[in-house]
């Protein structure tokens, strides 16, 4: 996704004006006048633009079939095609943003849409739209009971912006995201639970009982059931717990045998396959009935299991026997047993299912299996003591325990009789094993553009960003205040649903008139479509409790200059909330400086003032709280301020 920002960012060099602020505004432009373009046709939630021979069709479809409503989910769609032939434009990388439509056209002029997109692309703290569909978030699984959320596209003085921290009951072990990445499930072995996280708001929304020592998590391809591996010390309770992702309640607990459990599924979610390491078995469940239908002996010590959708078979690696059992996923009969070598363990197949990688940790080698022939076609030397695998479209990445080096295997170079290309790079100064105990969750996280990777080094507590084609990581994100163990990425970007059709399911962030800003890099097209969103009466009642309005001219201030911040506190009907004597403001310098608190005094009916000291340049975040109102810091919207050195000039923009 950094590639997307770099590509779209070229428009900044090609005439995108950056002087106009987001606080500046305009009324909806008549058809044919928005973003300096030719005639367009628009209705609420839809529109069609033709420019430079390219047709862009925009549509919004609420998931519940009603009108667009604040807080409800809707599908945003952009269809790109050749205006003359109607042929779809596949393989594009468009960007989109949702923000409030400005109200005063006189301040911005006809280039307003381009100007706002230019500000969004700069990634400045405090200059963010309501919803950014070119972005992603990096989530760091910590050794302590927490998850750190980082916005890699926003930086302050070269330092990444920590967005928030998600507290957990107990230290986490593994995690998995829902198919649409709206939820994140996290196993907590010491609590005997799975934490369910809203991946849009980054809050724990449920804690689900998950049996004894829930460790490995696996979500069916259709997303219906979450399967949890229970590593209980004895036979009783050692097996799987199945959780219904709709009701968030357990629907099955089944003992399958002693030892650690790995889990895989058929591509159509018909069968679930569960290994039991010490029992030496593969247990097969019928998902529709949640009944055990087969128990297969695969060897004395099964360590890994994976499905190849290409061959329609499940592969089970046995470290003691040194074999790979190939089991037909439909008939459940063993097709073949492939000798690979003692010490094999973790295995995974490339996304297309053709080649599988089987790691041999003691020998620091990887065996490559061709699913078309079920033969070993390569044996490759990789990073010392390999234990984790991740894939992008072009490469397989192998992480070693005994080396900071990450090996890269060129997938296009694999095949019988060919010489595979094996590259690599250093991700940090030391080997991961020096950090002590590590979770099951992977330290490798492919980034959103499918040509980059985050690698967590638990020794120096840093997540390194590597872009394919580089000799070394481009940057690193230090996890201040916590000890990083694993990483994953939550997408917020448009996806190509079919050739030329790009879309995303979003929660509409506000009511009123919104702008849906669209940007295509080649050819250069920037346009703002209009969208009217209805107020949500449920949310309106919730907001009636209390609201805060920060009385600032913009997000830019001078570092070190005295600042008296004023804000208005009111109820939902706009009645002032006066007489609050314990109102306080907590603020800190991003990403993770020591927070400060200061008392507020009332200077008008419902209007309060606090002196704040922003000595250093950077991004500050301010929260309001009051114990007498039951108002915790973070309950109300925060204020972001950007302090710049004196004499540098204040950057325009806001949010």
UniProtKB/TrEMBL annotation:
Give a single Pfam family match: Cytochrom_D1
Reading the lineage from the top rank, the first entry is Bacteria
Q: Which InterPro entries would you find in this protein's record?
A: Haem_d1_sf, Host-pathogen_enzymatic-act, WD40/YVTN_repeat-like_dom_sf
- Which interval of the chain is the signal sequence? none
Q: Can you name this protein?
A: 40-residue YVTN family beta-propeller repeat-containing protein
């Amino acid at each position: 996704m950094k590639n997307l920002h770099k590509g779209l960012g070229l428009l900044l060099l090609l005439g995108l004006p950056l002087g106009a602020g987001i606080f500046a505004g305009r009324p909806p432009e008549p058809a044919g006048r928005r973003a300096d373009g030719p005639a367009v046709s628009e209705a609420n939630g839809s529109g069609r633009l033709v420019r430079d021979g390219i047709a862009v069709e925009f549509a919004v479809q609420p998931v519940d079939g009603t009108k667009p409503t604040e807080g409800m989910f809707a599908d945003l769609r952009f269809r790109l095609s050749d205006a003359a032939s109607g042929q779809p434009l596949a393989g594009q990388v468009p960007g989109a943003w949702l923000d409030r439509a400005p109200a005063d056209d006189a301040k911005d002029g006809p280039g307003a849409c381009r100007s706002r997109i230019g500000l969004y692309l700069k990634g400045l703290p405090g200059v963010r739209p309501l919803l950014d569909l070119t972005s992603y978030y990096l989530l760091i699984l910590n050794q302590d009971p927490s998850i750190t959320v980082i916005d890699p596209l926003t930086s302050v003085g070269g330092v990444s912006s920590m967005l928030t921290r998600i507290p957990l009951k107990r230290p986490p072990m593994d995690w998995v995201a829902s198919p649409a990445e709206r939820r994140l499930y996290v196993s907590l072995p010491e609590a005997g639970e799975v934490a369910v996280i809203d991946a849009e708001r980054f809050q724990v929304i449920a804690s689900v009982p998950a049996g004894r020592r829930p460790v490995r998590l696996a979500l069916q391809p259709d997303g219906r059931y979450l399967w949890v591996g229970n590593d209980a010390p004895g036979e009783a309770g050692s097996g799987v717990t199945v959780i219904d992702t709709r009701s968030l309640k357990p629907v099955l607990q089944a003992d399958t045998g002693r030892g650690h459990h790995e889990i895989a599924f058929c591509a159509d979610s018909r069968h679930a396959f569960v290994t039991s390491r010490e029992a030496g078995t593969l247990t097969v469940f019928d998902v529709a009935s949640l009944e055990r239908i087969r128990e297969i002996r695969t060897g004395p010590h099964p360590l890994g299991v994976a499905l190849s959708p290409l061959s329609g078979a499940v592969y089970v690696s046995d470290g003691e026997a040194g074999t790979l059992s190939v089991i037909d996923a439909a008939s459940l009969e063993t097709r073949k047993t492939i000798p690979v070598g003692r010490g094999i363990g973790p295995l995974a197949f490339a996304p297309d299912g053709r080649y599988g990688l089987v790691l041999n940790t003691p020998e620091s080698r990887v065996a490559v299996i061709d699913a078309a022939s079920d033969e070993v076609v390569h044996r490759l030397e990789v990073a010392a003591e390999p234990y984790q695998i991740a894939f992008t479209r072009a490469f397989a990445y192998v992480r070693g325990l005994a080396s900071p080096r990450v090996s890269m295997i060129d997938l296009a170079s694999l095949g019988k009789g060919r010489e595979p290309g094996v590259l690599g790079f250093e991700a940090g100064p030391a080997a991961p094993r020096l950090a002590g105990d590590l979770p099951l969750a992977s330290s490798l996280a492919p980034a959103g553009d499918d040509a980059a990777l985050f690698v967590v080094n638990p020794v120096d507590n840093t997540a390194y960003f590597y872009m394919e084609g580089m000799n070394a990581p481009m940057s690193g994100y230090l996890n201040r205040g916590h000890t990083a163990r694993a990483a994953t990425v939550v997408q917020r970007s448009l996806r190509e649903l079919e050739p030329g059709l790009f879309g995303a399911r979003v929660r509409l962030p506000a009511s009123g008139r919104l702008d849906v800003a669209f940007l295509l890099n080649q050819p250069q097209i920037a346009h703002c479509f209009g969208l009217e969103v209805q107020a949500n009466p449920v949310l309106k009642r919730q907001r009636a409790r209390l609201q805060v309005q920060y009385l600032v001219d913009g997000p830019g201030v001078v570092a070190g200059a005295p600042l008296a911040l004023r804000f208005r506190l009111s109820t939902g009907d706009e009645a002032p909330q006066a007489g609050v004597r314990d109102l306080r403001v907590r603020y800190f310098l991003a990403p993770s400086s020591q927070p400060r608190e200061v008392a507020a005094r009332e200077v008008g009916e419902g209007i309060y003032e606090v002196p704040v000291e922003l000595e250093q340049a950077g991004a500050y975040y301010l929260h309001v709280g009051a114990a007498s109102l039951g108002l915790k810091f973070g309950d109300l919207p925060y204020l972001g301020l950007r302090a710049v050195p004196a004499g540098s000039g204040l950057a325009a923009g806001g949010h």
